[in-house]
Amino acid sequence: HKANAAKKAAMGVWVLAGSWSADNLTDGFIPARVLARWGTATDAKRLVEAGLWFPDTHKGETGWRFHDWNTFQPTRSAVEDRRKKNAEKIARWRDRKEAEREEM
């Protein structure tokens, strides 16, 4: 099992990095500078060896990327699209409420 191969400490890094990536909409990319917040290069190496991450470069920054991120997590573009649609929906609702108040 991949988690057993990576060991506990590296799996803790994997969980924290996944949360960070989802919050920051990086599509599963973890920059090397961010890894230092939770773990070490050894943790990253174990995650790569276990098949959970692979080395990657994004916008000139080295780091790692989660395998199959887009299979299990929404992409940045999907999240941004959903946020835009929600904002438009809320704006329409506010406009209707304002129009209702003006009619009174």
General description of the model:
64% of the residues lie in helices and 14% in strands. Helix 2 (8-24) packs across helix 4 (41-49). The chain contains six helices and three strands. With 104 residues, the chain is α+β, with helices and mostly antiparallel strands.
Mean pLDDT figure:
93
Uncertain segments are none
Choose one word for the global shape: elongated
Q: Would you report the number of β strands?
A: 3
Output the strand order for the largest sheet.
Answer: 1-3-2
Q: What Rg, in angstroms, do the CA atoms define? A: 20 Å
The profile of the biggest β sheet is: 3 strands, antiparallel
**Tally of helical runs:** 6
**Order of helical and strand elements:** HHEHHEEHH
Q: What structural category characterises the helix and strand content? A: alpha+beta
Strand content: 5-15%
Describe the secondary-structure layout:
Blueprint: H1 2-6, H2 8-24, E1 29-31, H3 32-35, H4 41-49, E2 53-58, E3 61-66, H5 69-72, H6 76-103
Antiparallel strand pairs: 1-3, 2-3
Helix pairs in contact: 2-4
